[in-house]
Amino acid sequence: MAREKKGKRLQWHPPFYAGMQIEFMEEAGNLIFETEHQLSSKPLEVDILIIKKDAGIAIRKEIGRIFRRYNIVEYKSAGDYLGIDDFYKVYAYACLYKSLAPHEDEIRTSEMTITFITRRHPYKLIKYLEKRRNYRLVKSGDGIYHITGDEFAMQLIVTSRISKEGNLWLWSMCNPVNDRETVRRLISDYEKNRNNSFYEAVMEMIVRTNRKIFRSEDDDMCEALEEIIEEKVTARVEKIRDKVEAEVRARSILELLEDYGEIPENLMGRVMAEKDAAVLKCWHKAAARAHSLDEFAGAM
User: Fold this and answer.
1) Residues 50 and 93 grouped into a single domain
2) Which tens digit of pLDDT belongs to each residue from 77-95?
């Protein structure tokens, strides 16, 4: 047998794939072999990964008291249902996350948690976990259930049952908002944090899914919120408009410069990357007056 060349690594997978088919040759008619089968056409990714900087400090928030160092969170939107295969998918993600650490057993299962968040109570999944996996669900708070019986610490959060007082924003994002007191609390909290992009994103979603109560004509607070949201929408529209106008102005500059020959890539890239309207306006005038690419570059 020829020796393996120094520094060249043997490729064991192709012959192993062939060897397995040899071993099952007599039953090949009933078997389908696929090599390096891709499990998903999409990148495998968890909804949220929360890492505690200091594993020794406990999380005070009730929905996060179970947290350890590495915490994987799976979220199902209001119209989705948390099923049996969802459980196995997220469980597999946790195993993959552990296994892909740089060093052997660097991440311990005792350092990890899995959290399932859903609005609809998953009766079928709970029954399955209790009967087939011998897990127990222990209620630790309103809508919060710890799943025991596995080396991973796990919890189920049913957002339709969690405390609104303790989880105002998560509750309001996942449930219909139909009372004015909740609206007032949301608006009051939002106004204190209106420059925070997190609050902006969640509030916009809450307003979109609860338009009726947020558009009540006889509620000054709701009207004020409409004005706040309108300001945010207007700001985004203006930002998009400015971006489009900058691109149009940049292309106009390049069209003028094309008369002087092929535009260097670095010059073209600099023009297209500029977003300041005042700068582009000056460059546009310079391009109209210049008699060569060098002259325009000097004017820039």
Assistant:
1) yes
2) 888 999 999 999 999 999 9
Is position 18 within any domain?
no
DSSP string for 155-215 = EEEETTTS-TTT-HHHHHHHS----HHHHHHHHHHHHHTTT-HHHHHHHHHHHHHTHHHHT
Q: Residue 117's closest CA among 144, 151, 150? A: 144
Quote the CA–CA distance of 109 and 87 in Å, as a whole number: 17
Please list the alpha-helical segments (H only) found in the chain: 13-23, 84-99, 123-132, 168-174, 180-192, 197-209, 211-214, 220-257, 265-273, 277-289, 293-299
How far from chain centre, in Å, is Cα 8?
41
Whole-angstrom distance, CA of residue 157 vs CA of residue 118: 6
- On whether residue 27 sits in a domain, the answer given is no
Type of residue found at 99 = S
| pTM recorded for the entire structure | 0.70
